[in-house]
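Narrative progress, year one. The postdoctoral researcher (J.K.) led the effort to move from monomer predictions toward full complexes, under supervision of the PI. The following entry was the first complex the group processed end to end, covering 769 residues in total.
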Amino acid sequence: MREDWGLTPYQTAMLTLALVGGTSVIVLPSILAAYAGQTAWLSALLPLPAGLLPLLIWRDLDRRLPGLTLLEQARAVLGPAGSIPVGAGLIALFASVCPAILRQFADLISAEALPRTPEIVVLGLMMVVPLYGVRQGPEVVARLAEILVPLAVGALVILGSAGLKDVVFNHLRPFMAQGPGPVLQGSLEAAAWYAETALLTLLLPFHGYGRRLAITGAVAGLLIAAGLTAVTTAWTVAVLGPLAGRVTFPIFQVTRVTSVAKFLTHLDSMLVVAWVAAGFVKTAVWFYALCTAVAATVGLRDYRPLTVPLAGLVVVGAMTWWASSAQLTGWVFHDWVFWGLSLELGIPAAVWIGALVRAKAPRAGRVTAP
Amino acid sequence: MKTGFRLVAALCAGLILAGCWDGIVLTGLELVTAAAFDAAPAGAMRVTLSIVLPASLQSPTGGGTGASTNSPATATVSAEGGTLEEAVSALALQLPGHIFWGHTRVILIGAGLATRGIAPVVDFLMRSRATRLSTDMVVTRGLAASVLTASPAYRTPGSDALFDALRRRFVARAPVYEVAQSLVTPTSGILIPEVEVSQPSPPAGGPSGGGGSGTTGSSTTPTGFAVAGAGAFQGGRLRDWLTQSQVRGALWLLGRTLESVVRLDAPNGVVVSVKLTGARFNRDAIRLPGGEAAIQVQVDAQDALTQVDAGSPPLGSAKYLLLLSHLLDTRIRQQADAALSLARTDGVDFLGFGRLMAEYQPVFWQRVHTDWPATFPEVPVVLQVRSHVRTTGNLVNLP
């Protein structure tokens, strides 16, 4: 179903920032520190090309097939039969990652704020806002992003400033003590996060200010997200030192150290509130992608009837697929990098190669998704 | 109707998300201000908590936060268990409310447990959701619980007195997360401040014990405590004790500023006291001309003369202040040498030299890091001290 609104560059940037940075800021620092130690911050910057690649692919595809989402482009390029594997691949990606994101945020809330609340209640309530937003359409999700994401980033910046006195810059030395290998290994993990920009191929066609500004907004969001992840990683390592790779949700452990004038403490609760708000946006974008992918693949004109049952399945998946937080961490650590990277980069690349080979572009005017 | 339903649903969700599910009201919390961990027989652990009595914290006139003079501000509870968590569970059975660790200001470790190993305590504190990772850890020579029963006259609750003493810059500090860092890198040690209990002063007519920390009291109950020296830990176990002077020496080598007063015996019977007002440090691992790896510490200290104890020194002379500066250099070297000597004898790197080697001489570190405790005593240390007595206060001289 087509939407009548246009995504502003600012909304694009905030959506991208939430999409990539929503979990990378809270999860990646410990993963990167476990691999690269003092040089972990570099691992957060090196994989930027993995985030830029889907955007470049979309730019070229949009020039050939303007105004179409990736699934519509796949149908136009590969035909109805050829687009089925593309749809199935995207559904597999979205259906596996949506519950993982929901579970990560639920684990965060359980660990930091509501340890006694049953997990199913936290998961269910965490799904309510994305469900409501997605049912209202991508415009609501975009507006949610432009309000909530700056608040989350602002909270992080304020807490970072308050915690500067606890930073020990020597913890960031020596540079590349173990050589480039561990840094590159860490980069591979971060690449899977940055390549989540592939989801924008379902949203960027709604741009309201031209392709160039849409891309500019997305790239700006990606750069801010990578910068925030790098700074957060450096901050974590500089405060926690060798502990950085051994704690869960490291940025929240850093805020447990931070105090303002030895009086204002427990600032982690402030960050939880702000970052969970950003988590709503990230979950909403992935959930929107899941709903539209399923609708397009099974041939529905409107994805909205699917939202409630799919939200229920996502909650059930988040509840049951990982028996413990350790299992989820293991999945993110070992499986997500290959699963995520191959689908996030592989599917847009396959459609793009198909478009190149067939050089088939519809004439101007929007094509309605079947 | 639909909007009303949504509004009610949103409010209900907000209530649950705000923690009203299984929520605990404030009055149902037992606020821990200090916790003491001691070794118990047969590998067990004893946990003693100092719990705030909120009613006693209100002043008799109301509205204030000063302590009532009639009733204690805190209560002490204690329990034993095979593990720390078992002991805490046993404590929970003694208390009507929910134990809340979020206001814990000091963690005390008894010598017995310190010798056995403090890793379980650090693990508990790091894993806990409520504890502040910046909470100070201290160690005692006897039972840590005895500090919690001390009742200093000058500040209540006693844990606040201890916390305030640690906050001032006269002692080294060891927050929980730094102790945890030392556990992650077993080759590096850490200094944890030592607290000693002050016994009651002798009855009237006895010596006042000038310079001590005792306060007036009439019973044998400990009346206070003072930060004495520090315990040197490696791998989470207590290896040795340092005097206050050795701690000062260690802090020079660690590159940390510590407010301290140094007595200087100058020529012609002059005795003066100088106080450190600031310092800059540079710590490095270098290669000596012969290619040998060494530690280099440069200290640039600024000091103020705060008192003339004996003699009539010419403090208006810049040359004389330079002489005092050189004397201070020597004292700083002596203190640092004493700490270094102890670290070498014990083979405990509480000076963070291993970390320096890893940072600045990674090739050498790769070769020796597995055997660092044995290698560390052989590593040369180059100490360069430059002191500057910059001011004599508001007075130049008295005849």
